[in-house]
Amino acid sequence: ATLVQCIAQINITNLPELINCDIKQEYDQIYLLINHITKRLDNETQHAKINLLQAAKNGPMYGCSSGINALLTIIYHDKYENQKQINEWRTVFDHLIKICLEIASITGPIVSSSSPEGMMPMELTDISSKDEDENSNGQITSQMLLVCCWRTIKEISLLFSRLGQIGIKHIQNENQYRFINLKQVHIICNYYMEQLLKSRHCGAYELAYTGFLIICEQLWSSNCDELCNLPIKWIENGIKMVQENSLDKNKLCLTRRSGGLPFYLQSILTDEPIKQRGQQRTYVAKLMETLLNIIQNDPDTIQIDGQVLENSRK
């Protein structure tokens, strides 16, 4: 990641030749490098779809994702005024969103497993037993697979947050935007909420928390009314979930301490703007009032389908 950042900031006139790029037009080096690494990521993703175990050994996707993230941190997106350049970046970002969602669907089952030593999917069990030269037992293989998938999901979460930082502030409405559009923002947000509200493993929603926090910060300060209202809609929905005890109605995951719901609420509320100096944040106060009422009034146990269970909401 550090290396590609350095390369991007050095004026290398023959960079297209060095990376075997057949583009003849003049492009900035960051674009060329992201485009080049994305092609490598595409290739690794295709291998992962065929055999995730081999991909973890020979082409772990987190390396390319990390390189792209590093380049996105140094991109000077405000300098792009030429519509042709903007359209090219739109194409790259659209492809990155799609490939990241595809990677997440491949690695998600491994990351979401509650097994601390890693989970080996059934379809990979026969493959791992044949790889005795490289792996003495399935335990090592499952841990290696877990590390690959964990790091990949982490980079996806960071990449989506980078795209949010680059694109959200330039969105005015559905038709006026620079790099990413409203639909793509919704896709990114839905990814985070899926991780936070439905994942059964604490690490999965902890990884999503940091990225979603950055996205929510951008949304609160957005110039687009639709985007600016999204955090309000989400927090009202989150408070309603708590009030209605939705955790016991299978609307959310059933992990202890409500799973990722606290991370979800905290991500949204951290950057809630204060309307007037000296006033409380509206939804922070509303959530605290709801939680305090639950502590004071809720029973320790509830009855569901004839069974007495611990009140997960409390």
TrEMBL record:
GO terms for cellular component: cytosol. One of its GO terms (biological process) is tRNA methylation. InterPro entries: THADA/TRM732_DUF2428, tRNA_methyltransferase_THADA. It holds the Pfam family DUF2428. Residues 92-299 form the DUF2428 domain. It comes from the Eukaryota. This is DUF2428 domain-containing protein. It comes from Rotaria magnacalcarata.
